[in-house]
Amino acid sequence: MPFELPTLPTGMTAADLDFDQLIDVLVTDDAYFAMGEYTEAELQDKFTDPIEAQAEIDTYFASLGELAEKPVIAESQAEMANTRKYSLPGKRTNPIELTINGMSKAQKAYLESSAFSGPKITIVCLSKDGCRITVFNGLRWVVDWSAETDGLFQMKIATQFSGNTKNRIHMYQKY
After folding, report:
1. How many Å apart are CA 7 and CA 134, to the nearest integer?
2. For residues 78 and 103, is the Cβ–Cβ distance under 8 A?
3. What's the gap between Cα 54 and its chain centre?
């Protein structure tokens, strides 16, 4: 059986799969949040340039805090539907968890309230140099927290959604 080159999506070339095109995985330092979500066009317009991204964050986003040492767990897993002869891809589940160090009493009260847990929220994670940006677009989040006597409060902000990640998780890298 002869092989064929894979058919890539429109706008994508084989060069896009080269190693030097890969984005560092979630290299970020600070997290910010705002109520609502972006369209695909708005994301491309607001976050592909670090200066415009910082202006957007300064205008519409509130600080969520500094991310912990191992701050983000994001997965995209497809369940398999098994037939007698084949395994077929089924529903895709995407759990995300952000870990943030430090929390004030007021912040704790707000993040546990329905004002934060109910509406769609966009969270932007930004590196200190402003060159790496991860946008979690328009998701519903819940907050868990813990504390140690010799450490800081630690918040875990989590969400989960089904389907592909196309309009939900975006990563940008500019040097």
Report:
1. 28
2. no
3. 17
Query: Domains in the chain, please, with CATH?
Result: 24-80+92-167 (4.10.410)
* The pLDDT of residue 96 is above 60: yes
DSSP state for residue 22 in the 8-state scheme? P
27 pLDDT more than 70: no
Phi, psi dihedral angles at 147 (to 5 degrees): -145, 155
Out of 27-36, 38-47, 84-93, 139-148, least confident range: 84-93
Tokens of 78: 């497809």
Q: Which pLDDT tens digit goes with each residue over 37-95? A: 999 899 989 988 888 888 999 999 999 888 876 656 666 666 666 667 766 666 778 88
User: Cα–Cα distance between 62 and 19 in angstroms, integer?
Assistant: 35
25, 23, 134, 46 alpha-carbon torsion, rounded to 10°: 180
**8 Å CB contact between 152 and 100:** no
Q: Are 100 and 153 in contact (CB under 8 A)?
A: no
Q: Which two tokens stand for residue 154?
A: 């630690």
Residue type, 169: I
From CA 29, how far away is CA 18, in angstroms rounded?
Answer: 27
Query: What 3-state class would DSSP assign to 9?
Result: coil
Q: Report pTM.
A: 0.75
